[in-house]
Prior knowledge:
mainly alpha; Rna Polymerase Sigma Factor, Chain: A; Arc Repressor Mutant, subunit A; 9 helices; 76% helix
Amino acid sequence: xxxxxxxxxxxxxxxxxxxxxxxxxxxxxxxxxxxxxxxxxxxxxxxxxxxxxxxxxxxxxxxxxxxxxxxxxxxxxxxxxxxxxxxxxxxxxxxxxxxxxxxxxxxxxxxxxxxxxxxxxxxxxxxxxxxxxxxxxxxxxxxxxxxxxxxxxxxxxxxxxxxxxxxxxxxxxxxxxxxx
Length: 180
């Protein structure tokens, strides 16, 4: 397994950039895919967002200062790309962001890549009722089991605020599930 510092050095080197980028893709593409997929819900949309994410990473790797881990930086880009995608979709369809979420959830049942059962679908519907920040925090903690310190780097929010957001999200989801 390649060290992050070594990978970053290779990414910034003209001789090794292509191979280092392939290594970076292999290292993080699945984790980033599921992160994005939890936000946009659709497999096809997640693929589009992920492609845009990796294009941005490739184009901007020279600007990466190393203040955080590459992983955190890439997650931040992926998160922003997913949110931008949803906002653009809402604008294009001339509907609210909440309606975009509802549409995505309703389309999950016809998505051939969705492997969840009735309970998973109910959970996704409950998550969709949360404010966007709470959705992100819940998905990152519940589905990806990220540490609050990692989430803090990615979302640029204090760990305390993230813990509070997660706690509120869990309570709202529990309430939604018990009422529906």
